[in-house]
Design brief:
Length: 305
């Protein structure tokens, strides 16, 4: 997929070294087509890493996509240079009157805090509500999935006795749903979280459909509004070394952390990870873009409302 993103964004040169076709905004302006407009609300602390991971997965279909990066205006990130934020990120007020074909809302390192005590919770609630009338389909990832299910449907989250950390086997509950086109009967997804949502709470809400789950890591994908919303508890977007980085970071800080499950060759960090999720991650994002964004969005994007 030719991605229309700022030429100076760090992800551009990195992804080109991976033979991923990234079209910067100067090239895209020469194409006489309407690109899909995707906005990414990036709540992760390492924003450049998260941008790169998501852009990598959005690059896998032949459609042109225009990316806007959004931040929570009431929160100042500590792990990303302010120059990067000023150059590439927008505040919500700058896009409030815009419409988008798709939206991705990332996880955030606030899962052990009550939703109402998160410093940008009020703004997040406004953005969640705005997305329902200004976006064709939205992916809520990890904490955002839990937060969205709580905000819209009252689904609670629960603290885990220890971190759900590793790469886990998942199954599909509805193989006819287009989001799973090309999926195997079993597939793997990374998880890294201290809280969970539970199957019994999802099944109580008639407007929610549990699409995928895992015996080890529980609920994975929940769909609402016919695919206008997907709530995804894992991190299919993770690059091969993300769990390794998290593991070594926590060890270095002296935090209680187990070896990530089903991740390292022979459970030996010195041998590196075995990547089991890359193929299905690409299918997940390309299926979402194709079947729930491109095929559902109106040609005049203003008609989303």
């Amino acid at each position: 997929m030719p991605l229309n993103i700022p030429a100076e964004l760090p992800a551009v040169e990195l992804l080109k070294t991976e033979n991923i076709f990234v079209m910067d905004d100067r090239q895209a302006s020469a194409q006489d087509i309407r690109p899909l407009r995707i906005v990414i609300l990036n709540l992760m602390p390492l924003k450049i890493t998260t941008e790169t991971d998501l852009i990598r997965l959005l690059s896998n279909t032949p459609l042109q996509v225009e990316i806007d990066l959004l931040k929570a205006s009431e929160h100042t990130p500590k792990n990303t240079p302010i120059e990067h934020m000023l150059a590439f990120y927008k505040d919500f007020d700058e896009i409030r009157d815009e419409t988008y074909d798709g939206m991705i809302i990332t996880g955030a390192p606030v899962e052990l805090i009550a939703y109402e005590e998160v410093d940008y919770w009020k703004e997040i609630e406004v953005i969640f509500d705005w997305a329902r009338s200004h976006v064709t389909s939205t992916l809520y990832i990890c904490w955002a999935a839990q937060a969205g299910l709580y905000h819209f449907y009252g689904v609670p989250k629960y603290s885990l006795p220890k971190k759900m950390f590793g790469v886990f086997r998942h199954t599909v509950n509805d193989s006819q749903n287009p989001i799973f086109r090309g999926f195997d009967d079993e597939f793997y997804v990374p998880h890294s979280r201290h809280t969970e949502i539970r199957k019994e709470d999802i099944l109580k809400v008639k407007d929610l459909t549990l699409l995928s789950e895992s015996e080890e890591s529980g609920v994975y994908i929940v769909m609402a509004r016919g695919g206008r919303e997907f709530f995804i508890t894992g991190h299919s977007e993770y690059s091969p070394l993300t769990l390794d980085t998290e593991y070594r970071r926590d060890l270095g800080k002296g935090l209680p952390i187990d070896l990530p499950r089903n991740y390292y060759l022979d459970d030996d960090p010195g041998k590196g990870p075995i990547v089991k999720w890359r193929g299905h991650a690409n299918l997940l994002f390309s299926n979402w873009l194709n079947y729930f964004v491109y095929q559902q969005t109106p040609y005049d994007i203003r008609d989303i409302r």
